[in-house]
Structure formats: C-alpha cells, structure tokens
Amino acid sequence: MADTRTVIKRDHQGGFVWQYEGEVVERGAKFICIQARFNRDIADIGVMVFRRDDLMTEWFYADRWYNVFKVQDASGERLKGYYCNVTRPAEITDETIAADDLALDVFVSPAGEIILLDEDEFAELPLNDNERQAALDAVEKIRTLVKMNTAPFTSG
C-alpha cells in the first residue's frame, strides 16, 4: 500500500486554496518529498505551461520558507523546470502537508535561468517585517542552491 499525503495549499492568512494527493518518495526529520500528477487541464504561468498529468516531484520543508516542485512532462522524460513557492515553513503530519503561500515564486528553467514571479502581489501582502525578510531570504537561498547545482536543483 502506497504511503500518501494530502497536500493543502493555503493563502497567506491560512485559508484553504487547493488540495491534491501525492505519494511519499522520501521522508526526513524536517522534510518530505512526494510525487504527484498535475490535476488541472492547463495552467499557463507565462514562463511555463503546466498540463494535466505532468509529473511533479515536490519537496516540502518544516524549517525553510519555500517548497520546490520539479516539473516534468507526463512521461517524466522532459524537465520543464523547477517551480518554487515562497511559503511559511510546511506543517507535515502523517496525513497532510500544509503550507501558507506568500505569493512570491521563483521559476528555475532547465538551463538554470532564475525568474522571480509575483513580486507585486507579494509586496501587497500584510506581512510583518520578520516574515517579509524570511521570504526574501528564501529567494536568496534558492538562488544559491541553483548556482551551486545543489539538490533538488539538479537535472538527474
């Protein structure tokens, strides 16, 4: 029997946005990695198009202000890129993974190009100074991991 989790995406106030199921690939003390299939028809985010059944390998961290989605086509053979949500640290239980999305996103192309998304939306969020700084620090941490070709930002 597969070990699955329900992923719950929440907005910056903790309100429900979306949920889906994923199968656990790896679990550590402060993180979990799952695989899931994109369950909507199409979502064009400008830098990439998500399509139904795209393979998503997703890392959620209880001690980091972001999560990382490695996005591959439905066959799993072509890397589309890495989509990183800046979030409050994830709440990981035996049944669920929940995170509060803070609007700011980082897209990493297969070639390693880093594109910051939704900066205007992030700027409008009513976050305190500590949360805003933690979110900006998360972007810099992602940039550093990409530049160092550090997991999960590797094409292997």
Provide a descriptive summary of the structure in words.
The chain has 156 residues and is of the alpha+beta class. 16% of the residues lie in helices and 47% in strands. It is built from two helices and eleven strands, in the order βββββββββββαα. The strands form two sheets. The protein has a seven-stranded mixed β-barrel with strand order 1-2-3-6-7-8-10. Strands 4-5 form a two-stranded antiparallel sheet. A hairpin with a 3-residue loop joins β2 (16-27) and β3. The longest helix is centred in the C-terminal third of the chain and has 19 residues, at 129-147. The chain starts with a strand and ends in a 9-residue tail after the last helix. The model has no long low-confidence stretch (mean pLDDT 96).
Number of strands: 11
Q: Helicity, in percent?
A: 10-25%
**Percentage of residues in DSSP E strands:** over 45%
Rg over CA atoms? 15 Å
- SS summary, helix count: 2
Give the rounded overall mean pLDDT. 96
Question: How are strands sequenced across the largest beta sheet?
Answer: 1-2-3-6-7-8-10
Q: What is the makeup of the main sheet?
A: 7 strands, mixed, barrel
Shape summary: globular
Poorly predicted ranges: none
Helices and strands, in N-to-C order? EEEEEEEEEEEHH
Determine the N-to-C terminus distance. 27 Å
Structural class: alpha+beta
